[in-house]
Amino acid sequence: MAYDEGLAERIRHLLDGEPGVSEKKMFGGLSFLVDGNMAVAAGNDGALMFRRDPARADPVGEHIRPQVMGERVMSGWLHVDAEGVATEEALREIVQRGVRYARTLPPK
């Protein structure tokens, strides 16, 4: 499964100039890491997943749900469908949430 290159470019643009950011192809998507910790990843069809504090009860809704890989729910990750990041404002909020949490983790 290939990742959505348009979404990856939008994320890349938002992270331009952010210190410690790198990219890595993982899990069939393109992950954006902050100091070696995954923050957000572009998936297919405009969907993405982002890192969050697993102890925090983030709201899920129409466009955000727990991230599932195979039959396993990924603790600390949420999936956002394309409609949930259709605007630059929505995408910016999601990317910032992932980056903020990744920055709380020790560098790798």
Keywords for this structure?
alpha+beta; Aspartate Aminotransferase, domain 1; 34% strand; 108 residues; six-stranded antiparallel β-sheet; TfoX_N; 2 helices; TfoX/Sxy family protein
Q: What is the mean predicted local confidence, pLDDT?
A: 92
Shape type = globular
Q: Report the uncertain regions.
A: none
Overall CATH architecture: Alpha-Beta Complex
What spatial order of strands do you see in the largest sheet? 1-2-3-4-6-5
How many whole angstroms does the radius of gyration measure?
13 Å
Pfam family, one: TfoX_N
Protein name: TfoX/Sxy family protein
InterPro entries: TfoX_N
Description:
The protein is an alpha+beta fold and 108 residues long. The chain has one domain (5-102): Aspartate Aminotransferase, domain 1 (Alpha-Beta Complex), CATH 3.90.1150.30. It contains two helices and six strands. A six-stranded antiparallel sheet has the order 1-2-3-4-6-5. Strand 5 (64-69) and strand 6 form a beta hairpin. Helix 1 (5-15) crosses helix 2 (88-102). InterPro entries: TfoX_N. This is TfoX/Sxy family protein. Residues 15-100 form the TfoX N-terminal domain.
Short description:
The chain is built from two helices and six strands. The chain is of the alpha+beta class and 108 residues long. It has a single domain, classed as Aspartate Aminotransferase, domain 1 (Alpha-Beta Complex), CATH 3.90.1150.
